[in-house]
Specification:
InterPro entries: AB_hydrolase_fold, Lipase, Lipase_N, Lipase_panc, TAG_lipase. With 354 residues, the protein is of the alpha/beta class. It has one domain: Rossmann fold, CATH 3.40.50.1820. The chain has 10 helices and 13 strands. It has helices spanning 2-6, 52-55, 77-81, 105-117, 128-131, 136-161, 175-186, 273-280, 283-297, 310-314, and strands spanning 27-29, 33-35, 58-62, 70-72, 91-95, 121-126, 168-173, 192-196, 219-223, 244-248, 302-306, 327-329, 339-343. The strands form 2 sheets. Strands 4-3-6-5-7-8-9-10-13-11-12 form an 11-stranded mixed β-sheet, sandwiched between helices. The longest helix has 26 residues, at 136-161.
């Protein structure tokens, strides 16, 4: 498993043999359509997405009216009509990223926090069979099929349960942010997409068609916490991808995380090495989850200020002394606030600074 986490670190050296096979024909899968690897969809090193039956995307509905999740199937209307889904509530999808699953502790924490805050339909998206690949480009390619499958569920909820697209929010971490982008592109009119440190490798500075971008929902926001280049063990992106992009602490090394990147291999062979690696090198990439969950649970507001660049932020040129026009980062953000925003956070819980 540790090797699996290390794979993105060598992705720049990975070259697929696909271009030399002389075949660029699309692959077609039932329900989700056809996929080719011609530009711009060659971003995943010419790797084709795997079929839906291999990825086995699953959807779990949580509401305040049941004690256990209910499984939703985009292709079985009875799972929708027989569930506790209500079109009178906002609907929030949560999507994980690379080498992750809905069994990760943050999923339960975020779901519980949302349901304690508001009456909502919370639907968690598990594509762990497609995310858990030794070769990172395969997982990156699979996001296209997962996005199409998610789009089909949204359409099913529209058709069979009266879902209003404006009430939809998709929260995606890492590769999950781009999955939300694909789904939003396939179903125009979704209310909001929240990208939590959208994955950078194979997506940074690529065509908007292959990554999250502002056209994917009525309001697209992103929180960037690990935007350094992959060569410096950065797993997110610095590039602006939304109507509103937030850069806590400049959007790169988060407080309390930076020192771990100098010791990328020290955890190997030690007890709990996998957890140490994730909490070390991937610390800034995972910190965005802590920040967003805290923005739901806490009464403290993550106040951010507009700023032109990371350099201006680091030099203090974006500091505000009076008459500050703050923008809220996280759960309380407003679609009316657009631009690039910067703020400081703490190095440990609580991360919000009063």
């Amino acid at each position: 498993m540790l090797i699996r986490l290390l794979c993105p670190l060598v992705i720049l050296h990975y070259t697929s043999a696909f271009p030399f096979l002389g075949s660029f024909l699309p692959v077609c899968y039932e329900h989700v359509g056809c996929f080719d690897v011609m530009p711009p969809f060659n971003n995943a090193k010419y790797v084709y997405p795997q079929p839906p039956e291999r990825i086995q995307t699953q959807f779990f509905l949580y509401t305040g009216t049941t004690d256990s999740p209910q499984t939703l199937d985009p292709y079985d209307a009875s799972t929708i009509t027989g569930s506790t889904f209500s079109n009178q509530r906002p609907t929030i999808f949560i999507v994980h990223g690379y080498s992750s699953s809905v069994h990760d502790s943050w999923f339960n924490t975020m779901t519980t926090a949302i349901l304690e805050k508001i009456d909502a339909n919370v639907i968690t998206v598990d594509w762990s069979n497609g995310a858990d690949n030794l070769i990172y480009p395969q997982s990156a390619a699979n996001t296209r099929v997962v996005g199409a499958t998610l789009a089909n569920l949204i359409k099913g909820l529209q058709q069979h349960a009266g879902l209003s697209l404006g009430d939809v929010q998709m929260i995606g971490h890492s590769l999950g942010a781009h999955i939300a982008g694909y789904a939003g592109s396939a179903v125009p009119g979704c209310g909001r997409i929240t990208g939590l440190d959208p994955a950078g490798p194979l997506f940074e500075n690529k065509d908007p068609a292959v990554r999250l971008d502002p056209t994917d929902a009525l309001f697209v926001e992103a929180i960037h916490t690990d935007g350094e280049p992959l060569t410096n063990y950065g797993f997110g992106m610095q590039q602006k991808v939304g109507h509103a992009d937030f850069y806590p602490n400049g959007g790169v090394n988060q407080p309390g995380c930076s020192e771990h990147k100098d010791n990328v291999f020290t955890a190997i062979g030690t007890p709990n090495s996998l957890e140490s690696f994730a909490n070390g090198v991937a610390c800034s990439h995972m910190r965005v989850l802590d920040l967003y969950i805290e923005s739901i649970e806490s009464t403290c507001v993550f106040n951010a200020l507009p700023c032109e660049s990371k350099e201006d932020f680091n030099s203090g040129r974006c500091d505000c002394k009076k008459n500050c026009q703050y923008t809220t980062m996280g759960y309380g953000s407003l679609p009316s606030d657009t631009g690039d925003f910067y703020l400081h956070t703490g190095s440990a819980k609580p991360f919000c600074l009063e």
